[in-house]
Amino acid sequence: MAALRWLTPRRRSATARSVLAGEASAEAARKSSQEATEVPEAEPDFPVLGDEKAAAFFDLDNTVMQGAALFHFGRGLYKRKFFETRDLARFAWQQAWFRLAGVEDPEHMQDARDSALSIVKGHRVAELQSIGEEIYDEYMAERIWPGTRALAQAHLDAGQRVWLVTAAPVEIAQVIARRLGLTGALGTVAESVDGVYTGKLVGEPLHGPAKAEAVRALAAAEELDLSRCAAYSDSHNDIPMLSLVGHPYAINPDTKLRKHARQLDWRLRDYRTGRKAAKVGIPAAAGVGAVAGGTAAAIALHRRRR
Question: Which of 59, 234, 238, 254 is catalytic?
């Protein structure tokens, strides 16, 4: 029997260390079980159904739509012989840069606005509005971000008003808002006399702080409570507008806005694909090729004509 003693369990009294180890193990098991069964606290419903004091404000370029509306509009005008090949090359290069960088460059945007103003000078407002409808179907409709569109629709379904807020000409913005079923649009206003564009702006482009002032003025006129409103943008230039509302969202954010949003615990949404760490606005290879190829072809054609 002695040879079989090693098979028989030995009875030993528990030491203080073994008791501590056992209690610690039991406590860890209990906590693990509780954490597995706990249900995270749900976020409050937003947007709030029937809240008539709330509304939503959406930036347009790279927030609602991939790329810049003004550049797409320029492509449509070129197709209709509003300007020459050298202008198309500039528009194409600006659009390529915007898509690659994923941010707004003030000099590029100013150049694009100046070009657009010179192009539309002498044309009737009604003519550009009609053409805008066609250009939306040709170049813009397929570039609407489905995710952002769903966010806007959620506000509409909740009975809230939804506005676009953009530096693009207000006529273009209104076409896009109408086609998306939104309430309306705030945009840059080009001067017109007797229904004809003069080639000048009324005030300045609706950009940066000017957007915030436009939203503030509209909220006052519509008797909205900005603390219950939401705003959506991709650009750090729109931080003044985002800071006005109680529900700011960073959509497809540039690097500066992403950093700012994280510091302030703003909500982020990114609907882009094929991006490295979602930091640089690199579109699909086909998109880059199309724009870059178009730019190269336009420049080459222009050089041959010189």
Answer: 59
